[in-house]
User: Fold these one by one.
Assistant:
Number 1:
Amino acid sequence: MRNLVPLILFLIVPYFSFAQNSRKERQEKRREHINQLIRQDEEGVIAYRKSFAFGIRLTNDGYGISFEKGVASSVKRTTLYQLTLTERKDHKEQKLGSKYPYSTPLVYGKINFFYPVRLGVQEQFLLGNKSNKNGVSVTGNVGGGFVAGLLRPYYVQVESGNSIQYVKYNSADSFDFINNPIGGPSLGKGWSDMKVTPGIYTKAAMRFDYGRFNEVIAALEVGITAEYYTKGIPIMLYNKERKFFFGSYVSILFGKRK
């Protein structure tokens, strides 16, 4: 047993020494890479030409997600190709309880779910660069594109004898005479009856990116949007159908540049 100890040490010590040297080499390469990026940024050289980011968005009347691809034309200017999916809710929507604990809450007067899908191009401009490697860069972007307003019919669960049925209501009179309502639609109901209303949109935003060394995107974006559709969007029975929607949002974005 005593003879094994020197042998084990003889085998282990070189391994740990090699691992430590390899780690130091990786750290040196990483440090040199970072210094090179800082020098390029100071000299106005484009270090990254492409970027990809995913965002989670909270709007004044709903929520959504986004995806974007960026192509840099200079240090201070980038073109963003963006796809955004959101759900807009009417401020008058109120969920009603049900005597059935496992049923979906009913929104009285709702006739459609409304999902705007935006596909557009934005121009992003650098307004303030990072003062150091751990600072925050400030950019502004403006642009627009096409929007498809997806309308998913709102079905109501009702009791009919000993069974439960889904019923779609299209008028205020029919909604006032719901017999034995149980709840709203399930997540999978209404997609096959969905309709599309096309339109256009424009957007302006400010972005605060605190991602380390610009390699990683970790940003907060605050902006406003304006949408115009070819015809009125029916969401609630008792509200006037609107063609124009104006809103604000806050988005958290995560991504990478290369």
Note: The mean pLDDT is 82.
Number 2:
Amino acid sequence: MLYNLLAPLAIDFGPLNLFRYLTFRTGGAVMTALLVCFLCGPAVIRWLKARQAEGQPIRTDGPESHLLTKKGTPTMGGFIILLGLSVATLLWADLSNAYVWVVLFVTIGFGAIGFADDYLKLTRRNHKGVPGKIRLSAEIAVAVAAAVWIMHITKAPLDTTLAVPFFKSLLINLGWFFPVFAAFVMVGASNAVNLTDGLDGLAIGPVMIAAGCLALISYLVGNAIFANYLQIHFVSGAGELTVLCGALVGASLGFLWFNAPPAMVFMGDTGSLSVGGALGAVSVIIKHELVLAVIGGLFVLETVSVIVQVVSFKLTGKRVFRMAPLHHHFEKKGWAEPTVVIRFWIIAIVLALIGLSTLKLR
């Protein structure tokens, strides 16, 4: 909004030219999202506590310590992230850029699905919310609509193609299969973050790391000079997503203030589904879907651990891990919760650096 209002006035008042720069507006988005979370977070948490007398339902089949340490902690804290992200993006982004609206649509749409899931869990007092098939169908509907929207915004030949890392000009034309693939990326990223969200601060740290990486890639992809130098595919208008990713970094930092061990609030499906969907949507637009699987490799590991556990138990009756997702396995082995969280953050940082290296290895 500030860009649309103030940038045109730069002709008459030079200092307003700052609002033309993505770097300046991204910094503003980071700080705005952070401040919104800091200022509104305590009030939101008090409101959630007042309406969640017993807090989030804790799984009885989970680690025994959770029944004691996490009982009474409210959920739906993802609303704090959504608030900071939305306010900062609407304030600092170019609102005439359709890509910004696509990502906001996915973020808020998935957040609404997560909110419904959290609400049913609270009212029913168990960890089962919206039936899986209904929730998945709603996620697919939002993701497919966004994918078709992206197809119509993006210029050919990038509108229906998949870019392959390490290759300068290789594009795989998916045709009308593109919406299916794009929806898979968004829904997969969303649920992968959701599976990772099981310990205080565990999911939001890697989300912040991934968002920072995507902010950098968006900036480079949206700049014809940098894209040509790095021999990556230039996507006109995608640079504006740098501001949105910056807002997500700021909102994640703000939420981490309240979610750090011992957590004052859990993000719940309201937060995990929305931020995961946002990461997926951005990766589809900037043609780095496969790189997201590396940058967000921790989320992939957590998801694979669940799949392996389920398949192994159904086929052999035996479990590969003491408990899935993977972070619970290490808890069962005796690792302290902060130890699991910090070590998983380290893994996330290493994977992010590997993912960023694909920008130059062509």
Note: The chain has a mean pLDDT of 91.
Number 3:
Amino acid sequence: MSALWGLLKKNRDSIVAIWREATLDTYPTDASNFLKKSKDPFHNPVGKRITQGLAEAFDILADQGETARVTPFLDDVIRMRAVQDFSPSQAIGFIFLLKGIIWEQIKKDAEKLADSPDWRELDAKIDGMALLGMDIYNTCKEKIYSMRVHEVKNQCYNALKKSNLIVAIEDMPDDQDGSLQ
């Protein structure tokens, strides 16, 4: 293990805590304050999932794991942000915050490693996480839009049916086969 990866593990708790705070700061003030203060997972399941998701994603990153392994943890965080109508850049922007947080937390020890290929690898892994995040966000939004279209179709159908404007084919007289003449 190189020095950079060792520094990440050594400073894990402070990096994850600051990343959590920075991520929660991306929410509106009232929501952010609630998410930060309420520690009860039953009253604050969103805060709990964010905390766990960020910690697990960071652990995989610091262990030099495959970037794709962070998908379930990012999914927890990004799925909530997609439902909460964050824009794509807002929904995944918290991932890029990690770069600055890592640098600030380990810079005095890491300045001598600035030209290390490990920094480029770390940057690439964080960028890869962001790309995965974009895929997750897009998949969530597609699902939301599909559900909305389905709901509107059902509402229209039910409204037409209540107004007796829809006739089932079996209810049609024998001389009409449903085709246009």
Note: Residues 86 and 92 are 9 Å apart (CA to CA).
